[in-house]
Amino acid sequence: MPNVAGKWDCVVNSPLGEQKSVLTVNDNGDGTWSGDNTGTMGGLSCDNGKVDGNKITWTMDMKVPMPMTLECDATIDGDTLTGGVKAGAFGTSPMKGTRVSG
Residue 58 is part of a domain; what is its CATH number? Predict the structure, then answer.
């Protein structure tokens, strides 16, 4: 089973430019995970975290700069994370990350 847990330095290429953050993934061992995502615009709780092999999905309720639910997915390959963040009508922005601990 792939190890998805850890802290990940991530960059999302969003409509507002590059958004850097640290994603914390705590594998609950039952197909779910919990954690948070902290960046320059503050921290968000990661909700509805699911693990399927080396793929993770989750949602985040963003308040700033406008309220919306972000739908996120990522594939983990060793210490590399690639995926996307769907922000409603703004579409999906690519995300990449590197494990910094875990």
Answer: 2.40.128.120
What domain range is 24 assigned to? 6-101
Handedness of CA 22, 80, 102, 29 (dihedral sign): positive
Q: How many folded domains does the chain comprise?
A: 1
pTM of the complete model: 0.93
What pLDDT, on the 0 to 100 scale, is given for residue 40? 82
pLDDT at 71: 98
Given a cut of 80, is residue 1 above it in pLDDT? no
Tokens 């390959």 locate to 77
Tokens of 93: 């922005």
**Residue 70 within a domain:** yes
CB-CB contact of 13 with 82 (8 Å): no
